[in-house]
Design goal:
The complex is a heterodimer of chains A (614) and B (386).
Chain A lengths: L12 H34 L13 H5 E3 L5 E3 L3 H20 L5 H14 L4 H16 L1 H21 L3 H22 L19 H13 L9 H22 L18 H10 L5 H16 L1 H21 L2 H21 L16 H16 L4 E4 L6 E3 H5 L2 H28 L5 H8 L3 E6 L4 E3 L5 E3 L7 E7 L6 H16 L3 H4 E7 L7 H11 L6 E4 L3 H10 L4 E2 L8 E2 L2 E5 L4 E7 L11 H15 L1
Parallel strand pairs in A: 8-9, 9-10
Antiparallel strand pairs in A: 1-4, 2-3, 5-14, 6-7, 8-13, 11-12, 13-14
Helix pairs in contact in A: 1-6, 1-16, 1-17, 3-6, 3-8, 3-14, 4-5, 5-6, 6-7, 6-16, 7-8, 8-14, 9-12, 9-14, 10-11, 11-12, 12-13, 13-14, 17-22, 18-22
Chain B lengths: L3 H25 L18 E4 L3 E9 L7 E9 L6 E2 L11 E5 L4 E5 L8 E6 L7 E5 L10 E3 L4 E5 L3 E6 L6 E5 H6 L1 H6 L1 E9 L3 E8 L7 E5 L2 E4 L12 E10 L2 E10 L2 E9 L7 E3 L3 E2 L3 E8 L3 E7 L5 E6 L6 E3 L7 E7 L2 E8 L2 E8 L2 E9 L9
Parallel strand pairs in B: 1-22
Antiparallel strand pairs in B: 1-2, 2-3, 3-4, 5-6, 6-7, 7-8, 9-10, 10-11, 11-12, 13-14, 14-15, 15-16, 17-18, 18-19, 19-20, 19-21, 22-23, 23-24, 24-25, 26-27, 27-28, 28-29
The chains are: A alpha+beta (614), B mainly beta (386).
Chain lengths: 614, 386
């Protein structure tokens, strides 16, 4: 009902069913991809081998023969890179599986993205809004795409051990990670207030991006200790900077909570909120206990955190193996403690999309330590003489399996990326959004109740004067602040999409739905505000008695809410055929955030065309 | 190889960035509630107006940190009455704020634009708010408490962000009298260095327009008599010659016109009231300045053309002061209760109108103390503007 708000619930059954259906379809495509990949790999085993004496075909083996590389000693994958590749591959898969949560299609923008951007400056919020608008318009394809993109990246990192495909995996994780960091995490909140390492600064996904960059580096970059020192040095600088930020006065981190009625410090408040989110009781008890402890000893807790961060930073900057090892162990303990007691494991309590920043931080430090202390071992010490190898044996080798699996993984990424790319350029909202909000169109076939009112120009308008046209009839409040202007704009879009001839064959009629502001001057002001100047647009009004009769005839409830609320009324649109028969009833509530902008228009367009054709 | 120089540069840059971040973020969390002044030249919409027929007050209620769940309410108390009654005009969402203009028999209430509504519906009453008649301003009322004024003879004037409009009687047909751009080019406008139009008051013969000026020491108050705007020529004491001045309120009263002026000296603001004895008179009586600490959160028009100001310090402490009429001085009122949204002063009665979400509580000033006298639960229509 207009004036009473319409919300697209994250458990809306239509959305859930569509999400499951999309995932099933895409899973089928992935399965086909995997089958093709498996066939490509095993084909050399199963294809009939040409007989040696089969004339010209007998040269097949010779043709298949290729010359292998000359004897050489090649370095295998560096342990640090391997560690990063496998660990972040698993993280991406875990994140992808988290995207399977039912609440993702309708809940991610409002429960994750918008809260993340809430404390950021306006330009960040605008940027994030641009990103979330894609999700709002195409919730099913966006949510399903995120699953396959992230699972695909993870599998690609796991199976592509070296070479261009492996580095491609790193590059894709950088690209997608940046998209998520900017539009999903609002730059990790670095431009907002309350920035703290404890709360996930500078954004978990930025750490995935760092890992992706390192995986993208050529093998030679891992030679020596240079990569390890650079990584650990950067992390050291980061920890020192975070210590300074944590120690900065006036940001609420030195404060606990003197009594239950006093304002809580930043950390206490955060942990108290986390302890109240849905999660296993044992975990909420742990988090709640820490919240109580911090409330009583906020100053000491922050001092310990500041000292620990500064010490870790200095240790990592030292570049000495033994000190770095101590820093690795200490940071692991600290990170896991923060992960449990402050970040509440990151993915619990709501629509969690990743395990937050502590696990990736530990993994990066671990990789830095490995880069500093280990060297790559020779992968193949080729000392055998030059020989020829058949293409068949190459294809059936483990390396070929890796290449085939990597190509298949890239295909999984594309299964998500292609629909996401199409969604990002499609400004028309999927009709499922309006159907989820308002229900599906209801067919009917009864005579429409006649009415005689006055249009915005002061001229009479009635069903009789519009006979022969396909009519979209709705009810709008001319002084409404939210839904009615949106519905009017949807009517405009339908009119535009039906083309210039629609002016003579269709009519868009709104009847005033406000018991007080019903004069012609108000509908004129509304039309001027909304630029409703189409020749087949009629904003009809009349006396309260006339309007009440029309409202009753069409089942429209109009209520005075009072206390500063707008008049509440039903958001319903009827499609009436040229013979004056009601043919379709549609709900027209645009919902919160105008999530179905142009979605209702697409549905109404379809219904009007169907009625006109019938 | 390790590069100490590179590490040092990176450390410096990172720490510098985070230092700036910390400095910025420590301030960015402070937001102003709907009732508070949000800029140096802003005048809060929360107000009360005492007239011969009764007192009108408007202030925000509900969830003040959520614009779509902040609803402005109108409370009235008839002259000689003891109880406030809620009389918010119905059937328009008023999240953007309300503007009240007293009339001879009642008041006109204007709805400020909000969300997708860009024009201002009006509602006039002659029975103390029991029933309202709809009206319309084709533009959006400016965000100042004196954006609308009605003379005893029914002449109306309205301010939008860029225009001054006038109407006669109907509250539905308006004509443009002047624009902000035109005011800036007037001799008086150039002397003022006009930022914005801040108030309008119309008598049956004159229209007064208050301005926010960028030129120090200049009081931006114009009078339109006949066909041209001229400076009303309000002079401040020479001690204020270097201070920036805003006209916060302009009202007509029985003897003429009155203005409340804010004089900004750095972060401190002093308040000065000015009256002319007759609309056409160029002679203004100016009060002594009253310095009241804290941000201005409400102003009031008291009976007889006086003013009251309500401020709130960073500590949350509230202060209030009132001045009765020409020739009188400012009086500091007792510290208002926490949550006071507006003060009303009508004759001998002073009220602190306190809001806590959906609860309105009236405190009366009795023997120098605020004494609770009435509580009203308001059915705030949460969620209706979402």
């Amino acid at each position: 009902m207009q004036g009473m708000g319409g919300t697209l619930s994250d458990s809306n059954p239509l959305i859930l069913a569509a999400f499951e259906s999309a995932l099933r379809h895409q899973a089928l495509i992935v399965l086909i991809l995997l089958l093709i990949a498996a066939t490509a790999w095993v084909w050399p085993y199963t294809a009939p081998r040409p007989k040696p004496d089969a004339g010209p075909a007998g040269a097949a083996d010779a043709a298949d023969a290729v010359e292998t590389s000359p004897p050489a000693t090649e370095l295998g994958e560096h342990p640090a890179r391997k560690f990063l590749r496998i660990s972040f591959g698993l993280l991406w898969i875990f994140d992808g599986l988290l995207q399977l949560q039912q609440a993702m299609p309708a809940g991610l923008p409002t429960q994750v993205v918008q809260p993340a951007a809430a404390s950021s400056p306006g330009w960040v919020q605008h940027l994030v809004d641009d990103g979330t608008s894609i999700w709002f318009r195409h919730p099913i394809s966006a949510a399903a795409s995120a699953v396959w993109i992230q699972v695909g990246i993870g599998v690609l990192l796991l199976v592509a051990k070296s070479g261009r495909l492996s580095r491609l995996g790193g590059a894709i994780s950088v690209g997608w990670g940046l998209v998520v960091w900017v539009f999903g995490e609002a730059f990790g909140g670095i431009f907002g207030s309350g920035l703290s390492w404890l709360f996930g600064a500078p954004g978990a996904v930025l750490l995935y991006v760092v890992a992706g960059v390192l995986i993208t580096l050529p093998e030679r970059a891992w030679a020596g200790q240079r990569a390890g020192r650079a990584l650990l040095g950067s992390l050291g600088v980061f920890f020192v900077a975070m210590a300074i930020l944590q120690a900065w006065p006036g940001r609420g981190f030195w404060q606990g909570q003197s009594n239950p009625h006093a304002a809580a410090g930043a950390l206490t408040s955060m942990v108290q909120d986390m302890s109240k989110t849905p999660q296993p009781h044992a975990l909420s008890s742990l988090v709640s206990s820490f919240a109580s402890f911090d409330a009583q000893h906020g100053w000491i807790v922050n001092l310990l955190i500041v000292v620990a961060l500064a010490a870790l930073g200095i240790a990592l900057l030292s570049g000495r193996d033994q000190v770095t090892f101590v820093a690795l162990v200490s940071s692991s303990v600290l990170c896991i403690a923060v992960w449990v007691f402050v970040q509440d494991l990151g993915f619990l309590g709501g629509v969690g999309t990743d395990p937050n920043s502590m696990i990736p931080t530990v993994l990066l430090i671990g990789a830095g330590y490995l880069a500093l202390t280990r060297q790559a071992v020779p992968a193949v010490a080729r000392t055998e003489p030059l020989r020829t190898t058949s293409r068949r044996s190459i294809l059936s080798s483990p390396a070929a399996l890796g290449v085939t699996a990597a190509v298949a993984s890239f295909g999984i990424v594309l299964v998500g990326a292609v629909p996401m790319a199409f969604a990002s350029v499609n400004t028309h909202t999927d009709t499922i959004v309006t159907e989820a909000l308002n229900g599906q169109p209801e067919p009917t076939d009864t005579p429409a109740t006649p009415f005689e009112l006055t249009d915005q120009h002061g001229a009479p308008v009635s069903l009789a004067t519009l006979k022969g046209r396909t009519i979209a009839l709705t009810f709008l409040d001319p002084v409404c602040t939210s839904d009615c202007p949106l519905i009017a704009q949807e009517f405009r879009k339908v009119d535009e999409s039906l083309g210039p001839t629609a002016a003579k064959t269709t009519a868009f009629v709104a009847v005033v739905a406000n018991p007080t502001y019903l004069g012609v001057q108000f509908v004129q002001a509304f039309d001027s505000q909304e630029n409703m100047n189409m020749p087949n647009w009629y904003f009809a009004t009349g006396s309260l008695a006339q309007l009440t009769a029309v409202w009753n005839a069409y089942g429209i409830e109009v209520q005075t809410v009072g206390s500063g609320g707008m008049a509440a009324h039903s958001d319903t649109t009827y499609v009436i055929d040229g013979n004056g028969h009601l043919r379709t009833i549609l709900g027209a509530d645009p919902g919160d955030n105008a999530t179905d902008a142009a979605s209702f228009a697409a549905l109404l367009n379809k219904e009007m065309r169907a009625v006109a054709a019938a | 190889m390790r590069s100490p120089k590179g590490t040092c540069i990176a450390t410096t840059l990172t720490i510098g960035f985070l230092t700036i971040s910390a400095g910025c973020s420590s301030h960015s969390g402070a937001g102003s509630s709907p009732g508070e002044t949000d800029s140096a030249i802003g005048v809060p919409l929360a107000t009360s107006v005492a007239t011969t027929t009764g007192t009108w007050a408007t202030f925000p209620m509900g969830h003040l940190d959520d614009p779509t769940n902040t609803f402005w309410e109108v409370f009235t108390m008839p002259s000689g009455g003891q109880q406030w009654a809620q009389h918010t005009p119905p059937n328009v969402a008023d999240n953007g704020g309300l503007v009240i203009a007293p009339t001879l028999a009642g008041a006109v209430v204007g709805f400020r634009p909000s969300q997708l509504l860009s024009f201002s519906p009006l509602a006039s009453t002659e029975d103390g708010g029991t029933t309202y008649t709809p009206g319309l301003l084709s533009g959006g009322l400016a965000s100042v408490p004196d954006a609308l004024s009605v003379s005893p003879g029914g002449h109306a004037a309205a301010l939008t962000a860029t225009q001054l409009l006038t109407s006669t009687g109907t509250f539905s047909t308006w004509q443009q009298l002047t624009t902000l751009a035109a005011v800036k080019t007037l001799p008086a406008g150039r002397a003022c260095g006009v930022n914005q139009m801040t108030a309008v008051a119309t008598t049956d013969t004159d229209i007064f327009v208050g301005l926010s000026c960028s030129s120090p020491g200049v009081v931006g108050l114009l009078r339109h008599a006949g066909s041209a705007f001229v400076s009303a020529d309000v002079q401040l004491p020479s001690a204020d010659a270097k201070d920036v001045v805003d006209v916060l309120r302009v009202v007509r009263y029985e003897q003429g016109a009155a203005a409340l002026i804010g004089v900004h000296n750095g972060s401190a603001t002093s308040y000065i009231a000015a009256w002319n004895s007759a609309p056409a008179s160029a002679t203004w009586t100016v009060s002594a300045p009253e310095r009241v600490g804290g941000a201005l959160i409400s102003t009031a028009i008291t009976s007889g053309g006086g003013f009251a100001v309500l401020t709130k310090a960073n500590s949350g402490a509230m202060s209030a002061a009132a001045i009765a009429a020409a020739g009188s001085g400012w009086t500091q009122l007792a510290t208002p209760p926490v949550g006071t949204a507006a003060i009303s002063v009508a004759g001998d009665r002073s009220d602190a109108l306190v809001v806590d979400s959906a609860t309105f509580t009236d405190y009366q000033l009795t023997d120098g103390q605020w004494v609770k006298s009435q509580t009203v639960q308001v059915a705030i229509p949460y969620g209706s503007s979402g």
